[in-house]
Amino acid sequence: MSSLPRSVVTYQDHLSKLQPLSSSRICCKTVKSCESLLRSNRHRTSLAFSTLVSRAQPIMGATTLDKSVPENLPPTLDAPVEQPPLFDGSSKLYTSYSCPFAQRVWITRNFKGLQDKIKLVPLNLQNRPAWYGEKVYPTNKVPALEHDGKIIGESLDLIKYLDSNFEGPSLLPDDPGKKQFADELLSYTDTFSGTVFKSFKGDPPKEAGPVFDHLENALHKFDDGPFFLGQFSLVDIAYIPFIERFQIFLSEVFKYDITAGRPKLANWIEELNKIEAYKQTKKVDPDELVEFYKKRHSVNPRL
Ligand SMILES: N[C@@H](CCC(=O)N[C@@H](CS)C(=O)NCC(=O)O)C(=O)O
């Protein structure tokens, strides 16, 4: 903040006062007046303007802000494959195309337009190269990010790290109320997914219903957009990889439609499916997922 030109700081103050009234008209007016302010100002630089636009994200559409570009995905690395050079100055995301935790970081990278800045290093978790656990990330899990001479893990920490340490549209709002709600929902992710996974052994509508209701209610909190914080954010990114899988599995195996009676959740899924950054990461094969979860969670569905 301290490095921002004065006009930017003034605009942010202005914006934060307008946010409670936010509407697309206000958004356009505000961005336009800000643009002309910058034009008439000697601090008119492209950096300043892009900073403003990204700060204005809470009142701009997700598909407009999405900076993802089409990409040819690199092949998955098996055990015999040599280790790519470590700490060679490039940033790498060690990942697995099928891992929901890694998918969070992948979506964030895409949305922020970091495809050229952060290379994907996809691993075959069933036949993992030994060098990964030995030399890169001792927990031997994905995702992990190699950046600035260090390795960082844990998907929720990583999505925040990408958001604060790389360029691209901001994925957390400045509004304190929204920030606090973001923290609450991010802390709830493990309870949510843990409860749903546990229900696979029992009665999902009964046991997992309340956690889906919790999300349905959370989606009612802000009305300036279809996402958890109104506008698209890290919170949506944290949940969607799990919801994508749960929706498939619960419908296939238990004939349980998680969106029935939950219109906000249904609309949220629909809106997310319009976001290219997310669509590019959808690699789940429904049949494989069903087999994998059945084995892993010793599911005995009562059909
Ligand atoms: N808490 C970690 C969980 C990561 C995780 O469990 N990743 C799985 C793949 S989806 C993994 O690497 N499993 C390998 C193993 O446990 O050996 C995060 O949020 O990043």
Descriptive labels:
disordered N terminus; 4 strands; mainly alpha; globular; four-stranded mixed β-sheet; binds glutathione; 303 residues
Question: What topology does this entry show?
Answer:
Layout: H1 6-18, H2 24-39, H3 46-55, H4 62-65, E1 91-95, H5 100-111, E2 118-122, H6 130-136, E3 144-147, E4 150-153, H7 155-165, H8 176-199, H9 204-218, H10 234-254, H11 263-272, H12 276-279, H13 286-296
Parallel strand pairs: 1-2
Antiparallel strand pairs: 1-3, 3-4
Helix pairs in contact: 1-2, 2-3, 5-7, 5-10, 8-9, 8-10, 10-13
The protein binds glutathione (GSH).
Residues 96, 99, 101, 125, 140-143, 153-155 line the site of glutathione.
Domain GST N-terminal: 89-170
GO biological process, one term: response to toxic substance
Organism: Erythroxylum novogranatense
Task: Describe the 3D structure.
The chain is mainly alpha-helical. Helices cover 52% and strands 6% of the residues. The chain contains 13 helices and four strands. It has helices at 6-18, 24-39, 46-55, 62-65, 100-111, 130-136, 155-165, 176-199, 204-218, 234-254, 263-272, 276-279, 286-296, and strands spanning 91-95, 118-122, 144-147, 150-153. The chain has a four-stranded mixed beta sheet with strand order 2-1-3-4, covered by helices on one side. A hairpin with a 2-residue loop joins strand 3 (144-147) and strand 4 (150-153). Helix 10 (234-254) crosses helix 13. The chain is globular, with a radius of gyration of 21 Å. 34% of the residues are buried. Glutathione binds at residues 96, 99, 101, 125, 140-143, 153-155. Residues 89-170 form the GST N-terminal domain. Keywords: Detoxification. It comes from Erythroxylum novogranatense. It holds the Pfam family GST_N_3. Its EC number is 2.5.1.18.
